[in-house]
Batch of 2 targets.
Target 1
Amino acid sequence: MAVHEDGTITKLVVISSDSILPIDAALEIYGSEIDITIKETCFGTMVTGPEDVVNKVVSNVVNLDRNHIFVKERGFPPGDDRRCRAGRGGGPRPGFHFLRNEIGILPIIGKALDDYENNVPLEKVVQPEKLKVSQLKDIIESELTR
């Protein structure tokens, strides 16, 4: 767990595109009326505060749609010069592109978790037969003689 210098932690609450809106998660956090720092982002919210309080609030948000809301620890508090775009001259912050890529697959993960909970049987995947080396050679030779 990444504990900041002031003893707080920060967690990213990342919301799948097929779930609630990020503002719904933020409203759930605001409604807790607990003294924590909340930063709304395009993918969800960042929650900073004492570990026990952050964990409780984040748990409440996840319970809104537990298979489609995910939590990721953040090593730096909001506004930290090492991550803040303002201090780095603009552009995406380090790790943004990776996070954006992760967010893209959250609906697939959420559906798989839903299916698992509902005991949906796995589909049998038929693997194509492997191509023999002799068949590959024949294909290459026929293409070369064209």
Target 2
Amino acid sequence: MSKDTIIAQDRAQPLGRYPHTKRVGSWVFISGTSSRRPDNTYAGADLQPDGQWILDIKTQTKAVLENIQHYLGLNGGNLEDLVDVIVFLKDMSHFEAYNEIYNSFFPNTGPCRTTVAVADLPRPQILIEIKGTAYIANE
């Protein structure tokens, strides 16, 4: 069984030695994904002149899911191929707003999902990170 890794050149590059996705047979594993753009800024995170961040969980959630959708496309799949996701929220008070955007990406039943609150994420401007597993049958 071959193992294929993808580091998408048109997306923000991993901050460590890991790929955006690793495929083993029909299984595709998606590394934790944030709203980081190729220029290393974050969708839904605007730094104010006074040094304070204005953060938007809805914008970040949308950007994260769009990044995951892109990675799945590079593997010949789409969001319908997701089997399981783990969502890391920096603040559980954002649950309803994140859930609203999440649900808009899955009009029918989506993948199995676990949402947990975490004490912190790698950058102060990150409110959400999602990792996932997809099953994309080989043709």
